[in-house]
């Protein structure tokens, strides 16, 4: 049984906690929040009373032997407000966790997943392969399901990836497949190829804008299942060292009991790789600005 602690102070915190209480995965679920009125603690206690998984409010001592620490947003509203609250909340939570002796894995399920994953890894000092964010995992599912609808095939027949960052992503059209056939080949024979690509992109943009706790819950649960041994290949936010500047971005990796393992690099077309490079340049500048402000 995995012992998971959910941290945060928003409706997404409540959504994720409720999902895990009701999960078929064997979990001991704990909640670490600075203001219980924001996450409906009484309702979660009532939910646990009719669910299989145990639930309680966390104490600092319980952070020590947690298997996974799940970080959700610490504020709602404008992006700047959420970012500042998330950085402050993560620093506080991780200081307490590391002080208690936490040595498990971190799962970042926040807005700006890649940026927060960068700082979660830095604040905690954990190895890079013990810290991951949801990244573009949800966008990848949206991409695959949108393609399935456009070509009227089962979603399981589609393999496609979205890389980059949650707010600044790239669809890998050149590496998308339905069965063994490249989507770009199918588009060559389609009467409305440009319309298909436009609609799929619009669906992904809409998802990226609207994704909240409800849409993230299933992703968190699936990653916990992978952590328990049900291996998964998905694009999650992970730190990669590149020269003197470490970068956190989403690309396909394998997640299992061992943690995060790199798989064969999935590279896109020249235009797709350029789009990724530009996104990472913008992310690096954003991180540098935040770190300069800290100093």
The percentage of residues in β strands lies in 15-25%
Number of self-contained structural domains: 2
Number of strands: 14
What is the tally of helical segments?
9
For this structure, what is the CATH homologous superfamily of the largest domain?
Lactate dehydrogenase/glycoside hydrolase, family 4, C-terminal
Based on the coordinates given, report the CATH architecture of the largest domain: Alpha-Beta Complex
State the name of the first-level CATH class of the largest domain.
Alpha Beta
CA-to-CA gap between the ends? 42 Å
Low-confidence stretches: none
Protein name: Lactate dehydrogenase
Organism: Lacticaseibacillus hegangensis
InterPro entries: Lactate_DH/Glyco_Ohase_4_C (IPR015955)
Task: Please characterize this protein's 3D structure.
The chain is α/β, with parallel strands linked by helices. It folds into two domains: 2-103, Rossmann fold (3-Layer(aba) Sandwich); 136-295, Alpha-Beta Complex (L-2-Hydroxyisocaproate Dehydrogenase, Chain A, domain 2), CATH 3.90.110. 45% of the residues lie in helices and 22% in strands. The protein has nine helices and 14 strands. The protein has helices at residues 11-22, 41-49, 79-100, 113-124, 137-151, 183-188, 193-210, 213-227, 270-294; strands at 2-7, 27-32, 54-57, 68-71, 105-108, 131-133, 158-159, 162-164, 169-171, 177-178, 181-182, 232-242, 245-256, 259-262. The strands form four sheets. A six-stranded parallel sheet has the order 3-2-1-4-5-6, with helices on both faces. A three-stranded antiparallel sheet has the order 7-10-11. The protein has a three-stranded antiparallel sheet with strand order 12-13-14. The protein is globular, with a radius of gyration of 19 Å.
């Amino acid at each position: 049984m995995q012992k998971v602690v959910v941290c945060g102070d928003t409706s997404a915190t409540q959504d994720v906690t409720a999902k895990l209480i009701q999960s078929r995965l064997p979990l001991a679920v704990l909640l670490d929040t600075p203001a219980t009125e924001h996450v409906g603690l009484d309702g979660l206690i009532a939910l646990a009373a009719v669910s299989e998984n145990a639930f309680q409010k966390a104490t600092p001592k319980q952070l020590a032997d947690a298997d996974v620490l799940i970080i959700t947003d610490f504020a709602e509203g404008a992006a700047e407000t959420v970012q500042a609250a998330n950085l402050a909340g993560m620093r506080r939570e991780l200081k307490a966790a590391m002080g208690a002796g936490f040595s498990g894995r971190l799962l970042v399920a926040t807005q700006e997943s890649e940026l927060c994953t960068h700082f979660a890894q830095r604040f905690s000092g954990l190895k890079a392969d013990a810290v991951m964010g949801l990244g573009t995992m949800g966008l990848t599912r949206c991409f695959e399901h949108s393609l399935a609808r456009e070509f009227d095939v089962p979603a399981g027949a589609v393999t496609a990836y979205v890389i980059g960052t949650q707010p600044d992503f790239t669809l890998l059209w050149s590496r998308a497949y339905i069965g063994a056939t490249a989507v770009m080949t199918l588009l060559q024979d389609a009467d409305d190829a440009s319309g298909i690509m436009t609609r799929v992109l619009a669906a992904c943009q809409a998802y990226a804008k609207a994704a909240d706790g409800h849409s993230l819950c299933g992703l968190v649960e699936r990653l916990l299942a992978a952590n328990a041994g049900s291996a998964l290949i998905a694009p999650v936010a992970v730190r990669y060292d590149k020269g003197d500047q470490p970068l956190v971005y989403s690309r396909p990796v394998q997640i299992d009991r061992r943690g995060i393992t790199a798989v064969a690099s999935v590279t896109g077309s020249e235009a797709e790789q350029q789009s990724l490079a530009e996104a990472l340049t913008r992310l690096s500048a954003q991180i540098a600005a935040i770190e300069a402000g800290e100093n």
